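Help wanted!
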Amino acid sequence: MKLEKGIPLIDQHDENGYWGGKFGGNQIAESLNYPIEELTHEFEKLRNDETFITERDYYFKNFVGAPTPFIKLENLTKHLGGAQIYCKLVSKATGGAHKAYNAVVHSLICKRLGKTYIGGDTGAGYAGKMLSMAAAKFNLKCKIFMGAKDVERQSINVFSMRSYGAEVVPVNSGSQTLVDAVSECMRWWTSENEEAHMCVGSTVGPTIFVKICAWSTAQISREMKKQVIEEFGEVPKDMRLINCVGGGSSAAGFWNEWIDYDNIELIGVEAGGPEGSSKHAAPLTNDSPIGVLHGATQYVIQDDQGEIEETESISAGLDYPGVSPLHCFLKETGRARYTSASDEEAIEAFQLVSKNEGFVSPSLEPSHAFAEAIKIAPKLSKDTIIVVDSCGDSAKDSKIIAERLGYKI
Amino acid sequence: MTSSTLIKSFERAKEDNRAALLTYTVGGDPDKKTSLNIFKSIADSGVDIIECGLGHGANIGDGGAIQDSTYRALSNGIKTNDIFEIIEEFKKDYETDVIIMTYQNKIMAYGEEDFLKKCVSSKVSGIICVDWPWPLNLDFAKKCKENSIIFIQLLCPTTNEDRLKSILNDAHEVVYYISMLSTTGQKLKVSSDEIKKRFNLIKKISPDKKCIIGFGITADTINDFKDTDACVVGSALCREITRSIDEELNPATNVGNMVSDLKQKLSS
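Answered by r_m:
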């Protein structure tokens, strides 16, 4: 399996939609074949359409707030000693996370398809929140599928979605988390695809959804590349880009522009779950078997019967048993390195970063990425640049973190 | 040769001047013993072909009633081997053909070759795999054929004519027409006439292939499909199993009664 240079990662799949001939694809019911072909055709047209790009950039800049800051974490760097730690503060994007990019693009595509109804899945609630936000802006009727367990633990985002006029559907099947929300959303689209458009909230699902999402979040590295050159005058010789990986949308966007730079290390951090527990949400780190989930072949946490196993993570946004085919491909080609951080390490990282930096208070998802940065930084020289994608803000996790730390709020 | 018996099931119904009746229930729902009894009761009630679900939790095509059945079977610890054992046991006493309907990950996890070997030894006649569309399924379909098992290709209302022709060209002797865009068990949202129009188009392209019509068919509409090749009722039966369990009644008897009624409506 080989990565090609000079070709966008999202386009390195074969005619059947498989990256490396193995990951991804369109393993879907026949009823979804037509809408997926229609969407594929529309997206390929739009990504080469200057008016569409201008429109996208207009909304990214004026509504999402691009570019988000690229800052040095002086205090954390000093505290840890070793490598210089920088942060791409994607949490400053409107809504508090990177999910706005995909939501805006899908809403624009929905309109171009002449559809007025959009549905999507959500785990932590960010994808759903941003999609409902964009749907309100673009006058689209919106339906969000969310695991009943997530509805409970991410109530702040649920409130937001309802404020934006979206219908939030709690999904009570299976583990009542993201995996079931995505299944239910795909079932809904199977019935409604003549009238409605579906937005998959991460770089998962059938190939076209992986592509659209990664194409949207690529904004992160596109703007960051300029910021890096502005800061250092050139691309640093030793740079490590650390990002959390659940479905993998934020990492795909954070790394997109850097894939061809062999000297830049890409580190993905999955959710290791509670210390001492056998449950986790880290299929790449733990060599989970290859299987088919939500229409795509990927590493997926499953039992010997092919049944998807329950995952466990303090972070709802990383609590997904599968992982993007893009990351399976990056792992298999050796381009990216994947590891995991435990719930406890993520909480500690959240505390350390918040206490040292104040303005940067990562949600539980990027706290996993910070945990890895905290682990490796002291062992590296000051010539090494670590950049962490702080892709979500901790506000939505206040209740969970406070409870864990023994506070009542 | 299991595949030839499957064709004969269609032909026998045709001689009876009606479509063949297929039932869908989830194998192992609610447990092995009851599930086997349900199959026997369905067969005694005159079904032509039994479609046995090998349920998958992360399915993307099942409606609520079938999801409930799947959940019940899986939480009772039903494994793929249990399904094969139920079928094997059933086939000891009955000639009725059994086809398996499942999802790709179930086959992958079992191993394609082993899965087919088991299908042969337990006398499964055909396989439907919901999330393994044409042309991605062609290699597996070929392996099915080598084992005299019919791989049943799926078609739907938005399969355009070119694709329809290509799929039919590659298809084995039996295909399955998903009558409407939905998950299983939803209310029929297209008219029976529209469904038959598509059915006729399929038959015009491939007169020799047997075409099963599924999704949304109930006791109220089944007679409309009398002059087609075959139709499936599934969710209504799964709902009946759920009701019987909830009310502590015998699911096998109740589902059997329902099938007798469907058969009568299809024959009248």
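OP: Thanks! One thing I noticed: The beta strands of chain B are 20-26, 49-53, 97-102, 126-129, 150-151, 153-155, 174-178, 210-214, 230-233.
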